Amino acid sequence: MVDFVEEVEERLRAERYATLARTYLPWFAAALVATIVGWLGVWGYDTWRDRNIGRASIAYDKAIGVLSSGDQTGAFESFGAIAKDAPAAYRTLALMQQGNIRMASDKSAEAVVLYDAAAKAAPNPILHDLAGLRAAQAVMDTAPYAQVETRLNALIGDKQPFSLQAKEMLAMAKLQAGKIQEARGDFNAISLTLGVSPAMRARAQGAIALIDGGQAGLVGQVVKAAATLPPSNGLNVPGLSGAQAPEGAADSQDQGGPPAEDSAQTPAGNAQ
Question: Is residue 231, in this structure, part of any structural domain at all?
Answer without folding.
Answer: yes
